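Note to self: the last two entries modelled the partners one at a time, which told us nothing about the interface. This time every component goes in together.
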Amino acid sequence: MFARLLYESFRRQKRRKLLAGVAITLGVAVATAMIAVATDIGDKINRELRTYGANLLVTPQEDTLDVEIGGVNLKPPSDGSFLSESDLPKIKGTFWRHNILGFSPMLPVTVSLGEGSGARSATLVGTYFAKRVAFGKDEFTTGVRTTHLWWKVRGAWPADDSAEVLVGEHLAAKLGEQPGGAVLVGGESHRVAGIVSTGGAEDDQIVAPLSVAQQIMGRPGAVRRIFVSALTKPEDALARRDPKSMNPELFDRWYCSPYVQSIAYQLQEAIPHSHAEQIRQVAQNEGTVLSRIKGLMLLVTLAALFASALAVSAAMATAIFERRREVGLMKALGGGNLAVAALFFAESALLAIFGGTTGFIAGSILAHRIGRSIFASQITIQPVLFPVILAIAVIVTFAGSAAAIRRAVQFDPVFALRGDA
Amino acid sequence: MSDPRPAQTVAARREGSHHTSMFLRMLVRAAVLRRGRAASALLAMMVAAAVTTAMLNLYVDAQAKLRKEFRSYGANVVVVGNDGTSLPADAVSKIEALVGGRGLAVPFAYLVARTANGQSVVVAGTDFERLQKLDRWWSVSAWPGGTGQALVGRRALPVVSEGGKPFDLLFQGRAIHLAPTGTLQTGAAEDSRVYLPMSDFVAWSRVQPSTVEIAVNGSPEQINAIIGQLADALPTADVHPVRQIVEGEARVLGKTRATLYATAVLIILTAALCVLATLTGWVFDRRRDFAIMKALGASERLVGSFFAAEAAALGAVGALLGFVIGIGIAAWIGRVNFNASVLPRLSVLPFVVAGSMAVALLSAIVPMSLLRRVQPAIILKGE
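The predicted structure of the combined assembly is written out below.
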């Protein structure tokens, strides 16, 4: 009898059930999409924050002081020590290799431009543009085009194995260089592939493939410093502790968290005689920005969940309130309060499960769309979310129905049937 | 015939006034007699309006709040004397006047000095008070307070000073005696430098500031406008944006904005649809009222306008209540996340009210057009 009542209720009141179901579906869809986006936004924004460039700098351990103003090096070029280019691929062999999005070696050299009376000195920086590097079986591409995303080139990027160069915007204006021209560096002519604009010191410099700088310096395989761009976890109390003072268990936890400090530690391990340090301007601030954006999305999600819960409750309350006459009839025919309430709760549960499932699917599609159109990448939806969402849907539906069911049950059947509600 | 007014106009007036008050009374009684149902419809309306208000407020305000967070990255505009020459003496005050309350300008002067044992080191003069606010990521053990005190980079410290003792620096034959008050760590070029108060620096070296770093608050258009104004005011200087900072900010902010926009649209749409569902049910359920009115001779237009007025009133009241709640939600989010209040934007109110009324009207029109086709007798019979 109970099952038949339930079945008939759905069969005969399609419009009402549809309205309540649509409300639940929508609420659940928005909740699912919001939770999926909010849980994934940290990772997405973290990747976007990498546009700020490298957050780690690797220098030789026994380095002499940099004497540099506005990007012009005033130190004798051969002064100080160097890192070895052959150690670079080892960066991709560290524990957090998947978090390392790219790295760029730098080798600044002071060179003379032009010849005769027009000669002037400038800094030439050797680097990787988009170099293919192999570590073991892994092949990857790295260089300034990955780590220094704000560099803009008019003309073309030089190939890493060529002798072509980029000329900084200001320097090019002074020299009258154009892409496709040639520049005399230390008496040797190099083709200018493009004009680079960075808004930094490079605007007054020449940027060349690393091998060109090494050749000019006469030090094959030398690298002055390495910029590393890594996805990191915002700093917390554990991150700031000195690894030397930790017990082995704590050290393992620190080592296996992608803090900027632990990645620096691992880089130092991977590259002999090196010192790796966070670039505080980038590393420190991304934590703050990230936590603000994550916090914002979390609170918006909470507000959205609250709103969809209230909307579902309101829809359920209306749906039940409309059916006082039915309640009156059931009670007049001898239905107990419990039996009537059970029927309504069973209906609500069925609606919640159907609406919750369709809503979850719709929400997943929605989250996927949002990820695609805004971040051009997938938003992953944890399967664990499904039972959680379903449980929330049932609870919210019950909560929304409870008050209305109570009132409907307590109503005198005589009045309900007479239509004096 | 003592009454000077013609009887006809009195009747017409009475009819008119009666008509209006009856209309109003029906509206009020409908809400009072069916409290429960009116309340649930109003609740749905209110929630929708509250969420819409909160999202619109946040969407407008969060960008400004986030921009402020991004300023912790430091300067986004740099003014440099052409070819490394010093800036004109009035450059800093000119920049200050132009930037005004919208940003922070910090002057820097650089030179290469020699230590007592002949090593080269870069020395910079600056304004520490402002620098602290501009470059908050600098890790400084103690900021220098007075003259003769220096902030020494982590890598420069062992070169200039033995064991943190006071040291001398030489520039063009002139010496300055400094006490290393604090050490500085940034992970970049600053670690190899010694920073002095600007007054000490100028008195010692007679080198004037050559660089001014400015953190300008505002949208990319506002920043570009300021760059243009600065370039006009300082023809001998080169003014350029710090692309690394400006582009990073634009990108992250753009994505955040897009996400917030998508969520706002989603939430508002859901809220509107739920209101639509609730109100449609509400109006549809009152088909007996509708039938009675028609049976008593009310015209289609009168009944239509009655339901429309009811829906519009519900929409307006719900919107107003929801607006207040929504402002509260936005303020709470601002307080919790940004430690700053989100200002209530009254400009949002008309949109919320108009939107709510439109949705409410729409939810009245759909069931009305369905009911119009049905004979009142059939509805009253209860079928």
